[in-house]
Every structure is written in structure tokens, then in C-alpha cells.
Design goal:
mainly beta, four-stranded antiparallel β-sheet, 130 residues, single chain
Amino acid sequence: VGEHTSIAQLTIRVATAAFIRELQNVKGEENGTATFTCELSLSGIPVTWMKGSNAILPSKKFDTKEEGTLKVLTIRDLKPEDSGIYACVAGDKQSTASLEVKAAPVLFKRWLQNEEVQEGSTARLHCELT
């Protein structure tokens, strides 16, 4: 009964999360697996995993998971070159930690064997390492 007008304003604020559990430094052995875990204050917040300044994409080597507020990065088949600083980035916040990969010891798979050759001949000695 009559004209009525109503005006409203909607303000949308982007949810920002804080890290409630930071990444921890990890030590691993060559050919092994390392896992980084952190926790955000909110679930559903997308993150980017980084090694140095490079974004990490899921692959056979790198697996990323989200379990509620937990964010998990698993690195498989560790190599010494995987050592470095890793980060979980959520918006303008980030948590960083280091990975130290200990190289596997070099072992003999096949030892040197004694060889006898005639004077003036060439002797070939072979060994094989891991």
C-alpha cells in the first residue's frame, strides 16, 4: 500500500587465515620420503607450496593434501638437490622451513679383483659402486 524503497549495502571480506602450526625443519635420507605439515586457522583456504622462489606442482615426486585445516606436502625419492627452503603460502602469510637430505653412502657393489698380465700388456681393473 504505497511505494516503499529499501537500500542495503553488502560488504564481502576475504577470509584471511593465520598459521596456528608452523612448518618444522625436516631431515631426510637419500631415496627416502620427507613430509612438511602446517595448520591454518581456517579450512578451505588455498595454499601454494614453494621451494625457494619456485611453485611446486603435484607430481610423482610431490604430493599435496588438505585435511581440514592441515596442509601437507610429501616429497618422495629424496635427492641431495631437494635440500633447501620450502614454504606454504596462504594469501599474504607464509610459513617456511628447511629440508636437509643426507646423501646415501657410496658402497662397493663389486670389488676390485687381482689380475695377472704379461709384462708390457694392459691391465684392466674394474669395480662397481652404488
